[in-house]
Amino acid sequence: LLKFNNIAFRIRASILSGIFLCLIAVAIYYPNRQEELYLQNAERRLTEMAKTISLGIDLAIEHQSFYGIQESIELVTEIDDFEFLAIIEKDSTNSNYIFAKNPSDYPDERIFERDSTNNTYFEYPFSMDPDFEGVIIIASSKLKAAQDIAELNRPIYIFLGFLLLIGIVVSSYLSNAITRPLHKLTDIAKQLTFGNYDLKIPIAQSDDELSLLNNNFALLCDTLRLSKQTNDNFNTYLESEIHRRTKDLEAANETLNQAQIVANLAHFELDSQMNVKSYSESTYDMLGLDSIETMHFGDLLNFVSRKDVSSLIDYLGGGFESESIFKRDILFKRNDISSEVVEKWISVTLKPVLIDEEHKGFRGILQDITERKFKEAEIYRLSLVAQNTSNAVIITDVNRKIVWVNQSAELITGYSKEEMFGNSPSMFQFEKTDATTKARIKDSLDKNIPIRAEILNRGKYGNEYWLELNIVPLHGDDYEMLGYIAIETDITERKSREDEIGKLLMLSQHQNERLKNFAHIISHNIRSHSSNFSMLLDMLLMESPELTTDENIEQLVQASKNLEKTIQHLNDVVAINTTILDALEPIKVFDLAERAILDVSALAKAANVDIQNHIDREATVLGLPAYVESILTNLITNGIKYRSNTRKPYVRLRSESKDSKLMISIEDNGLGIDLEIHGSKLFGMYKTFHKHEDARGIGLFITKNQVESMGGQIHVKSRVDDGTTFLVSLNHV
Amino acid sequence: MYKNGSSWLVDDDPIFVFALSKMLKRLEIFSDVTTFENGKAALEAIEQNPAQLPDVIFLDLNMPIMDGWQFLEMIEQSNVIEKLEILVLSSTVDPNDIDRLNNHVKIKTFVSKPVTLDKLRHIFGL
Question: pTM value?
Answer without folding.
Answer: 0.37
